[in-house]
Amino acid sequence: MTAQEKSLLYSLLNNADCLYSGRVSSDFAPADFKDDADIAAPVSVAVQDAAVPDAAAEIKKIALDIAQCTGCVLCKARTNTVPGIGKIPPVVLVIGEGPGADEDRTGEPFVGKAGQLLDKMLAAIQLSREDNCFIANIVKCRPPANRTPLPEEAQACAKFLQAQIDVLKPKMILAVGNTALHNLLGTTTGIKKLHGKFFNYQGIPLLATFHPSALLRDESLKRPAWEDLKIFRSKLLEIVPDYQTSYLNGGSV
């Protein structure tokens, strides 16, 4: 509303008050109006614009801390640490197990065959690492021969993943595979029993599904994985009804 419109409305209310009360003059105090566009809007925009660079800087700092980490034996054989990659801030945080050979070589998560399949799985529900997801792992260095990370290795990396979650503040978490499920929820129950179900992780809805590597080994898991993704999408639409906009518009909203 413009200042002129506000002044006119104020004057009408003033006159109505006089007519209703029988007074010659109203008790309304003089007022100096401004256009709505002049009130607070620049401040809110500035705050919003500043939030993203701050989060990006924090994520970069965490990545540097990871690169210097010698908290477990995995640091001895690594080529590169693999802190994570994606949109900041993301709508969805995807958490896997740990880097493989391709990831160790490039320093990016999920870039091999399993990563290509993960990208297709995410695209099927209008998610991507470029537009609205951030992808990370339980451990940030490659375990020898791609073995399952040991508990002490996962524990050594837990502080980094937690720091990332605190900064990124995702609306939902998609945990892929047993290792992510077990470490995030502190359970030993297998993925086959818990996939497709929602859990509360520090106030964030979390759903687990099968790791893409498992789908490459056993195609019979692709159908239940797809059902999991549909369940995940339905919940995400409840929380962020327009989340697909960033995907369809190539990251812009």
Can you give me a brief rundown of this structure?
With 253 residues, the protein is an alpha/beta fold.
Shape: globular
The end-to-end span amounts to 26 Å
> What would CATH call the architecture of the largest domain?
3-Layer(aba) Sandwich
Low-confidence stretches: 37-49
Estimate percent helicity: 40-55%
Strand content: 5-15%
Discrete helix count: 10
Q: Domains counted in the coordinates: how many?
A: 2
Alpha-carbon Rg, integer: 26 Å
CATH superfamily of the largest domain: Uracil-DNA glycosylase-like domain
Mean pLDDT over the full residue set: 87
Largest sheet: 6 strands, mixed
Account of the 3D structure:
The chain has 253 residues and is of the alpha/beta class. It folds into two domains: 1-20 and 32-52, no CATH class; 69-248, Uracil-DNA glycosylase-like domain (Uracil-DNA Glycosylase, subunit E). The chain is 48% helix and 11% strand. It has ten helices and six strands. It has helices at 3-21, 41-67, 101-106, 113-123, 151-168, 178-185, 191-194, 212-217, 222-239, 244-248, and strands at residues 85-86, 92-96, 133-137, 172-176, 198-201, 204-209. Strands 1-3-2-4-6-5 form a six-stranded mixed β-sheet, sandwiched between helices. The radius of gyration is 26 Å and the shape is globular. Residues 37-49 have low confidence and may be disordered.
